[in-house]
Amino acid sequence: MAALEPMYRDLAEERALMSPRVDNIAPTTHPGGYYAFKHMGGTWPAQGIQALRINSDVVTHPVIAGKPRRQKQPLAPSSKGGRWVGLVLLFSTQTGALLAMFPDGVVQRLRVGAANGLALKHLARADAATLALIGSGWQAGAQLAAAIAARPLKEVRVWSPRKESREAFVGEYRNVKAVETAEECVAGADIIAASTSSMVRVIEPKWLKPGVHLSCIKTHEVDAEVLERCSRVVLHNRKQAKQIDNLLKDTANVAKERGKSGWWNDGSGRFEKYPDLCDLLTGRAEGRKNDKEITCFVNNVGTGLQFAAAGAWVLRRAREAGVGTELPDDWFSEDVHP
Amino acid sequence: MAALEPMYRDLAEERALMSPRVDNIAPTTHPGGYYAFKHMGGTWPAQGIQALRINSDVVTHPVIAGKPRRQKQPLAPSSKGGRWVGLVLLFSTQTGALLAMFPDGVVQRLRVGAANGLALKHLARADAATLALIGSGWQAGAQLAAAIAARPLKEVRVWSPRKESREAFVGEYRNVKAVETAEECVAGADIIAASTSSMVRVIEPKWLKPGVHLSCIKTHEVDAEVLERCSRVVLHNRKQAKQIDNLLKDTANVAKERGKSGWWNDGSGRFEKYPDLCDLLTGRAEGRKNDKEITCFVNNVGTGLQFAAAGAWVLRRAREAGVGTELPDDWFSEDVHP
User: Fold this and answer.
1) Is the pLDDT reported for residue A214 higher than 90?
2) A95 vs B39, B41, B76: nearest CB
3) Which of A69, A81, A136, B235 could form a disulfide with A160 if both were Cys (CB 3.0 to 4.6 A apart)?
4) Could you report the per-residue pLDDT of A110-157, keeping only the tens digit for each?
5) CATH number, position B319
6) Is the domain of B284 the same as that of B204?
7) Is residue A152 assigned to a domain?
8) What is the distance between the alpha carbons of residues B116 and B95, in angstroms, rounded to a whole number?
């Protein structure tokens, strides 16, 4: 959160730059799957860093516990079996040089959590003490860490459709209680944080009691009905809405992906009026005004700038600690004019 | 040319995919310079290849021989001194894995030349025997190679503003004659090929005699006045016109870059009606019809797909020859869901 906040301030002042997230979707040989190539860039002159985050995935849409999910398949061969492929590249804006490459997974989780944590600081009640986690996967851990960083929590409950998943989560984190139903999880909670791969709504309108704060990492987790009940909604970045506009035409799954609507594109235009996180952090948009408001942060899309900010921090710390593998500069530069 | 032609056929049939070229322009510390980060992607399912080509450059706009140029400064540190930074990454659309990384310079040149060579095959007169090269830099060599591959040339002349540059070119290639003036170079030429970094017109309308073919690698090399005199104009890719829409606001050079117009954006809309190279290669657009036509190919923008096609070829040849450095797959994959 400390690494990202100054970046959001520079973004608000137009002293940092994003390139649009691009998703390429194409046929692949994996049964029921499609190939998804995603990249997003961010330039943060204050740190002299250009970041590019790249994901290269084979994706399927299995139905789990009755609901469709979006699953990336770990198919990349390695000495440790099938793995995922996500990379962050950092370049110097002063010399152009490639400074570092590292897998995106850990940073990806933390920068999502950090954005939700920064929003939570301004939107959750000051005395918020009970956290309900909907979803118990990898991202839920970062939502937990962010909430702990922002508020002195007294109780954390977790629910997800599969019992083994929530039990595993409880085994990993201290002082978290797994519960049997979503209703039990959210009852009386000050903060409801969703961390799911669901492609349909997971937060029910009837859960929204006065004073609650909703923290989402995916637009699909809420819909217009939920958002209408909120006093205040903040997006991560309204301009960087996901674009899937360059699809190949000849696979069923590609057609399915194209058909995905999500609340962003409901045509009303109202979602574009919600302020961004950087507006909230710089006071251009107001945070919570009283203890009755229902507030909501939707981390609607990630940005390459998050990887520039987190990456600058990772690079500095890695150099201090002397970790990583130094590769020859000559491999990543050239003596012919490109 | 052989590596790229099947890709253009797939592109015409929508069996290959491009992501838009993105240019990020930001302030840098180099005097009179700005930082330019560029990337373009291409997916070619027939070869199972996703390519991403990345350029990370510090750029200046010096005036040379009275005309403004766009120069990339070799500032990246290496054991061999300052170098440029351009990289091609290849991923598998079947597993997601990173297959290869290599500097873009040599391939960058050859894919530009290959596109112009493929166009030349369909647009230059069958008996074209005299080639006039305007510009004698790195790209001119590929234009020469492409023209030789497409037509049985008898005479090649070269002119560029700086004598030492054209003399160096003549020293590198056999049977090329350097001349003192542009007029001497183009007199009676069947093909005029421009390979410059000029930001203003380098081909003069009065040079356009019946039957000539113009081969350009930059939109700035020709303007509306030149194009109006052509019987037939083909673009590399009209949809991938360069976009510089995400500029930071606070440097003079950024403002200069923003102010660049070029003929693409003259507002008439007519340039969008010119066919693409892939239309020409698949017969959707006609090539030269008679010996009197004045034809023109403008390689208006590069595409990531060129790097997918050339990269698939490079990768296959590198594996056959056992060249390159194998790095651990584990470095470029991860065991956490990204």
Assistant:
1) yes
2) B76
3) A136
4) 999 999 999 999 999 999 999 999 999 999 999 999 999 999 999 999
5) 3.30.1780.10
6) yes
7) yes
8) 33
